[in-house]
């Protein structure tokens, strides 16, 4: 077969094979809210205030307009009885590639990183696939919001805070950019005597430093010239960090990486967020002093070192709480098989922390209001508060318990379809076995 024929054959095979590999989901995004919705009789978990038993919440035009014990029903309101149910703010996955990765073993379904290691201009939200099969699965677990981040080995690119419902990435985006992601662990040599790795680290440091200094000069030039446009997209991304419009979101687990990142951010007066944070408790005073929050990369993690206690990852949230360090818990632990497909387990990562000492109310906060505060969207989401988006879930029990099911959900007042490939297959094979086949 000649080269043209080979290319045509491969293209034909891919055309027919790909739909079976990565079919889009069948869920239709929710329609905008057109009439008031009153949900009453439920246990309300506002997060930023005490739990309300047999409470009522009112949703109007996509916002929460009232919450309490006794609320009058507006004319034409849809009244929903929720006796015995629990209502929480939509859960927030604080660091994920959901929408950027479908099947890890099939590279054509993965768009989480660009070629090269220096990509500050990359914008994660433009690559998000609204039809990902993993999004409905995450929603069914209560995860309605996510901090979507690009991957990579050094300067990864810009992240976005997104809603898990919408026809397009534009409809899904709540805040973009929400951070500039850098893999700081990649700059630290694994062995103390590794001269080559230390040299590579120094080269990366120098290059990143030059970029930052260049961005500072360009920012000053624009201020003097009343010019806010740069033709260099990489530089423009860094300038947002320099101006403190956007935080630097640094992947760092080891103490040396965390300390180096904090020192660098402090010297350049940058806003900083640590992702991973395995050794964060060892740097607690430093993190507290500079008010650097930590996005914990899940609790389902193995110890980083051979001599670490087996429960190091399980107890990290409680150790940070006691140390006074702000934190949120994620559900997509690095290196854990499946990646974005594990976002559905977010509440159980928080539940694991409860089993190892973290108070339950702090666990719920760590997957709702805390990530919203850290990522700069707490004025819109994260708690059941008057004026915030009507983004919430109704569950038939404690959201941290595995047997609990999410029975209803709204994003900005739009009713969300909670079916998914999981529920479709459940119904399919339930019929099969009921028929005796």
Automatic annotation (TrEMBL):
Instruction: Report domain Amidohydrolase-related positions.
Output: 317-414
GO MF assignments = hydrolase activity, acting on carbon-nitrogen (but not peptide) bonds
Signal peptide span: 1-22
Keyword Protease included in the entry's annotation: no
- What sections of the sequence does the record tag as coiled-coil? none
What is a single Pfam family found in this protein's UniProt entry? Amidohydro_1
- Keyword annotations: Signal
Give the matching SUPFAM superfamilies.
Answer: Composite domain of metallo-dependent hydrolases, Metallo-dependent hydrolases
Quote the protein name from its UniProt record. Answer: Imidazolonepropionase
The organism encoding this protein is Novipirellula herctigrandis
């Amino acid at each position: 077969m000649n080269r043209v024929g080979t290319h045509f054959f491969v293209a034909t095979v891919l055309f027919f094979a790909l739909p079976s590999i990565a079919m889009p989901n069948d869920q239709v995004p929710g329609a905008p809210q057109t009439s008031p919705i009153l949900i009453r009789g439920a246990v309300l978990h506002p997060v930023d205030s005490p739990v309300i038993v047999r409470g009522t919440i009112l949703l109007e035009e996509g916002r929460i307009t009232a919450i309490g014990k006794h609320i009058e029903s507006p004319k034409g309101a849809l009244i929903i009885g929720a006796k015995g149910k629990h209502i929480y703010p939509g859960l927030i996955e604080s660091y994920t590639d959901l929408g950027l990765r479908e099947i890890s073993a099939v590279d054509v379904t993965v768009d989480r990183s660009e070629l090269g290691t220096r990509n500050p201009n990359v914008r994660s939200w433009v690559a998000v696939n609204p039809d990902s099969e993993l999004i409905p699965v995450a929603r069914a677990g209560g995860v309605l919001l996510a901090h979507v981040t690009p991957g990579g080995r050094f300067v990864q690119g810009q992240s976005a805070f997104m809603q898990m419902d919408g026809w397009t990435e534009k409809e899904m985006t709540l805040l973009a950019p929400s951070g500039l992601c850098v893999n700081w662990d990649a700059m630290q040599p694994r062995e103390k005597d590794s001269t080559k790795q230390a040299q590579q680290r120094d080269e990366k440091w120098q290059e990143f430093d030059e970029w930052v200094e260049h961005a500072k000069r360009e920012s000053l030039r624009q201020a003097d010239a009343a010019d806010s446009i740069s033709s260099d997209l990489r530089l423009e991304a860094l300038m947002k960090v320099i101006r403190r419009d956007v935080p630097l979101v640094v992947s760092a687990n080891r103490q040396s990486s965390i300390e180096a990142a904090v020192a660098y951010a402090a010297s350049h007066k940058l806003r900083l967020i640590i992702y991973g944070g395995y050794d964060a408790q060892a740097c607690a005073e430093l993190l507290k002093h500079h008010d650097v929050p930590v996005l914990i990369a899940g609790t389902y993690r193995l110890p980083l070192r051979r001599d670490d206690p087996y429960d190091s990852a399980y107890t990290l949230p409680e150790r940070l709480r006691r140390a006074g360090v702000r934190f949120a818990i994620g559900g997509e632990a690095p290196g854990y098989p499946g990646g974005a497909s594990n976002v559905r387990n977010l509440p159980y990562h928080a539940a694991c922390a409860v089993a190892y000492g973290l108070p339950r109310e702090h666990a719920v906060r760590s997957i709702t209001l805390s990530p919203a505060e850290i990522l700069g969207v707490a004025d819109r989401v994260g708690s059941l508060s008057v004026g915030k988006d009507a983004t919430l879930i109704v569950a038939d029990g404690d959201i941290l318990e595995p047997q609990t099911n999410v029975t209803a959900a709204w994003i900005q007042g739009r009713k969300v379809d909670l079916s998914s490939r999981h529920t479709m297959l459940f119904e399919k094979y339930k019929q099969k076995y009921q028929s005796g086949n």
